[in-house]
Amino acid sequence: MGRIDSARVDATTEKDIAAQQANDDLETMQEVARFVRRVCKRLSLSQAKFARLISVSLDTIRNWE
After folding, report:
1. Residue with the larger pLDDT of the pair 41 and 64
2. How far from 50 is each of 16, 30, 42, 47, CA to CA, in Å?
3. Domain boundary assignment for the chain
4. How far is 58 from 64, CA to CA, in rounded Å?
């Protein structure tokens, strides 16, 4: 395991944390979109059929992608 850089941790601001969280959220949504596209393609499902299959709205699927 690596060592913790205490000076860097102490220098981290709330703004830094918020920016990292926003970046993490964006990366997560991109991963979800890739997953949804892969599943739909492998199962030959339209977005609408996939949405019904997992009991979410079509808008939700579209937002994920």
Report:
1. 41
2. 37, 18, 11, 5
3. 9-64
4. 10
- Specify whether the CB–CB gap between 53 and 40 falls below 8 A: no
For residue 57, what are the contacts with CB-CB under 8 A and spacing of at least 6? 51
User: What is the C-alpha R_g of the chain?
Assistant: 18
- Read off the pLDDT of each residue in 28-40 and give the average, rounded to a whole number: 91
What's the pTM value of the predicted model, to 2 decimals?
0.64
Secondary structure of residue 6 in the 3-state scheme: helix
Apex 20 CA angle, 19 and 26, nearest 5: 90
CA distance 52 to 61: 10
